[in-house]
Amino acid sequence: MIRRLLIAAQIAAAAALLLWPALIAGRPAVFDDTDGYYWLGESLSEAGLQSLLHLFGDHRPIIAQGSLFAPDGVQYLSYMGARSPAYALFLFLTQRLGSLWFTVYLQALAAAWMIRTLLRAAVPRAGAKAFFGLIAGLSATTALPFYAGFAMPDLFAGLAALALVLLLVFPDRLPRASAVAVWLILALALSFHRSNLLVALAVLGVVFAVLAWRRGPRRSLRRCAVAASAAAAALAALTAYPALIRALPGPAELADPPFLMARVLADGPGRAYLAHACAHRADYALCDFQHVAMTDSEDILWSQEPGYALVETADAATRARLKAEERTFVLATLKSAPLAELGAALRNVGLQLIRFQVAEPLESPAQYVARGQNAIATILPGAEACQQEPACTPPFHAGFLRWLHSGIVVLGAGFLAVWAVRARTSAPAGDEARLLYAAALIVGFLVLNAALCGVLSAPMPRYQARVIWLLPLLAGVVAIASARGWRSLATTVGTAAQSTAVGLLAVAFYRR
Fold first, then answer.
1. Upper half-sphere CA count for residue 256 (Cβ side, 13 Å)
2. Partner of 88 for a Cys bridge, out of 41, 238, 321, 351, CB 3.0 to 4.6 A?
C-alpha cells in the first residue's frame, strides 16, 4: 500500500511539473475551438438529461435557448460534426466538477502515468529518479508541457501513440490493471479527435500487414487484437453519435465543414477547375464565390472578412449545398489535374513534417474573452486580467522555444538514428529489439500523422507539435535503457530534475 501511494505521489508531482507553462502564465491555454467543445459538452449534457427525464415520463423542457440543439442553434450543427462529443463532455464535466485547472491537470496526469508506464515496461530496472529525470527533460525542452496545459484534445494524439506502443510491443509487461487503463486511454484518445483514430487505424494496418507477411495472419491478428478493439470502440462511438443526435426532438442534423473542398481549392487545382467549370455553366454553389480569395483553407472555412469569407458567412442552405457537392467537386478536381494535386499533397506533407513549433498555446486568450457569448470568458481562470492584452499574453518567447524544441528534436532523432544503426548491425534481441520495434512505431505514427493532417486538413503547427515530443521521449528511454552506469546517471539526473521541478513550481506559484 505504501509503495502504491509513493508511486501515485510521484505521478501526481510529475503531472504538476508538466503544467509549469500554464502555472507561470496564470491560466491554462485555450483556443477558439475550446469554446465550441465546451458548448457542445454543455448541450449534450442538457440533451442527455432531458432524454433521461423523458424515460420517466417527465416532459419538462430542459434544453435552454442557448443550447446547440435548441432551434436557434441548429445553424451551427453544419460544422459541429467535426467536434468530438467525447472530448466535449470531458471538458465540460471536468470544468464543472472543478475548474479548467482540473481539466488540464487530468490531462497532465494521464501523460505522466503513460510515460512512467512506458519507461517501466521498456526498462524494468528504471526507478523514480530515472522517471523524474525523464519528466524534467521533457518539461524543460519539448512541447509536451504546453499541450498538457492546453484545453484542447491535442495532447491525446501523443498518448494514443504511447498506448499503441504499450499494447503492441510490451503487452506482457503490463499488469492487468495497467493494461485495462492503457486500453481505456487509447479508446478515449481515439474518440477525442478523428485524426487520432485515422492515424491509429493506418498504423494498425501497416503493423498487421508487416506481421502477417513475416509471421502469418493469425499471429498478426492476435498481436493487434487488443489495440484494434480500442479503435473499434472509438469508431463505434463516433459512428453512433450522429444517429443519437438525429434522435433528439427537433431538427438536429450534424455535418462537417467541407475540409477536402477547401484543401483542393487552396492547393490551386481546385481553383483552376472551378473557373473552368463555372465558365461552362456548371451548377456548383462555389460558382457564386469566385470573387473570394480561395488561397488559404483556414480562410475558406473560418474567415469572416470580406474577400476571404466563404463557408462561415454562408447561410445554412448554402452550407448544406457546399457539403453535398464536396465529393463531386473534389473527385472532378483530382480527375482534371491529378499530378498537380499529388504534388500539392506531397508539399503539404513535407510542410507538416517540419512545422512543429508551439504556436496556438502561446496565443493570448484576450481575443476570445473579448467576444460576446463566448464560454471562454466564463470558464477561463483569471479571465478578468484578459481585459488588458499585455497582462493576458503568456510570458514565453516563441522564437526561443522554436529553436530549443527544434534543436532537441534534431538531437533526439540523430541519437536514435545512430543507436538504431548500431543495434541493427549487432543482431538485436530482447529489450533492444523491442525498443527498435517501439521506435519504428513512433516514427511511423509521426509520419502518418503529418501525411493525414497535411493532406486532409492543412499543415498547421499544432498538428505535429502535439506529437513531436515523442521523439525526445523515445531518445530518453533508449538512453536510460542503454546507459551502462545507469544508476549513477539516473541519480545525477534525478537530483537535478527534482531541483529543477521545485524551482519551476515555486516560480509558477509565485507568478500566480
1. 16
2. 41
